[in-house]
Design a protein that fits this description.
This is Succinate dehydrogenase hydrophobic membrane anchor subunit. InterPro entries: SQR/QFR_C/D, SuccDH_FuR_B_TM-su. Helices cover 68% and strands 0% of the residues. By secondary structure, the protein is an all-alpha fold. The protein has a single domain, classed as 3 helical TM bundles of succinate and fumarate reductases, CATH 1.20.1300. Helix 1 crosses helix 3. The longest helix is centred in the N-terminal third of the chain and has 29 residues.
Amino acid sequence: MTTIEAPRTPVVRKKGSNLEKWGWIYMRVSGLILVVLIFGHLFVNLMVGEGISGIDFAFVAGKYASPFWQAWDGLMLWLALIHGANGMRTIINDYVTHPRTRAVLVGAVVVAAAFLIVLGTLVITTFDPCLGFDPATASDTISSICA
C-alpha cells in the first residue's frame, strides 16, 4: 500500500544553491527595474522633443553618442532578454515532460538569448553613425554629427 505524506510535512531538500528561488527573485527584481527603464525609454523617445515623428537615424545616433543612454539601453536589453529567457525556461519546465526534449528546448532558449544579448550589446557599444559617411549625399543632421 502506498502512503501519502501529510500536507504540512516539510520538504527536505538537497544542500546547495536553490536556483529556482534565485530565478523567482530575479524575475521580481528585474521586472520592477524594467518597468522604470521601459517607461523612461518610451517617455524620452515618444514624449520629449518631436515625438514619434522625430525618431530617425540621427536621433538614434545622437542618443548613442551619450554613455548614459548606452548604459540605459544596454541594461534594458540585458534585463529584458534574461527575464524573458527565464520565463520561457519556467514555461518549458512546467509543460514539457520528456527530459531530453526539455533539455533541448531550454538549451535553445539559452543560445537564442545569449546570441541576442551579444548582438544587441555590440550594436549599442559600437554604434558609429559616421561609418561610410559621404558628405555629398548625407543629410544636414548627419553632416553636423560627423563633421
